[in-house]
Specification:
CATH architecture: Alpha Horseshoe
CATH class: Mainly Alpha
Structural class: mainly alpha
Radius of gyration: 17 Å
Number of strands: 0
Shape: globular
Distance between the termini: 63 Å
Number of helices: 9
Order of helices and strands: HHHHHHHHH
Oligomer: single chain
CATH topology: Serine Threonine Protein Phosphatase 5, Tetratricopeptide repeat
Number of domains: 1
Length: 184
């Protein structure tokens, strides 16, 4: 296991400066979603173009700010992820699962991280929220991505197995067998 090292400061200083401006505007939650381009964090090679690339946010903003002395960023990050976990907006829930998935990927190679979000505190919130989502959201592309992340994050596999299996089964039925529209 390698020790986690920050990216080259020259590579992340622009991102940190931008994030500090977002903080001054009290728009940190918007930065985690990035629907508004002013609060979106991406790189040229980001796969996600319409929202914040969570990996860029973590490695170029959150971790450097923590190392540079903003220890409260861990608490704020958790609170934003918690708020998103309780939202009935599948894009917000998907971003939380993106964060947790990327954290797991990074932890598979590096320890310790500058800070680590306790997945076990968010998983039950996410599962409860998913059960409450309206049916029309359960066939969206973002919901499919969300389910893909849930399948990939170990914490979901070990928490309330029956609930996770029920959600996955329901997804499979609704997404792959949508109700047929009969026109008269």
């Amino acid at each position: 296991m390698q020790t986690y090292k920050l990216k080259n400061k020259e590579n992340y200083k622009y991102f940190v400066k931008h994030y500090l401006e977002v903080m001054k505007e009290r728009r940190e939650a918007e930065a985690f979603l990035g629907e508004d381009i002013r609060y979106r964090f991406q790189q040229r090679n980001s796969m996600i173009t319409e929202y914040t690339d969570i990996q860029v946010l973590m490695e170029y903003c959150l971790f450097p700010l923590y190392v540079e002395g903003d220890k409260d960023i861990e608490r704020r990050t958790f609170e934003i992820l918690k708020e998103f976990s309780l939202s009935i907006d599948e894009k917000k829930i998907w971003q939380v699962t993106e964060y947790l998935l990327l954290q797991d990927f990074i932890l598979a190679e590096y320890k310790p991280l500058p800070f680590e979000i306790d997945t076990r505190k968010l998983v039950p919130l996410i599962l409860d929220t998913i059960e409450k989502l309206p049916n029309e959201l359960k066939t969206s592309g973002y919901y499919a991505r969300l389910i893909g992340n849930i399948k990939s994050i170990p914490s979901f596999k070990y928490y309330e197995v029956e609930k996770v299996e029920k959600i996955l089964k329901e997804f499979k039925e609704k997404y792959y067998n949508p109700p047929k529209v009969v026109e008269l």
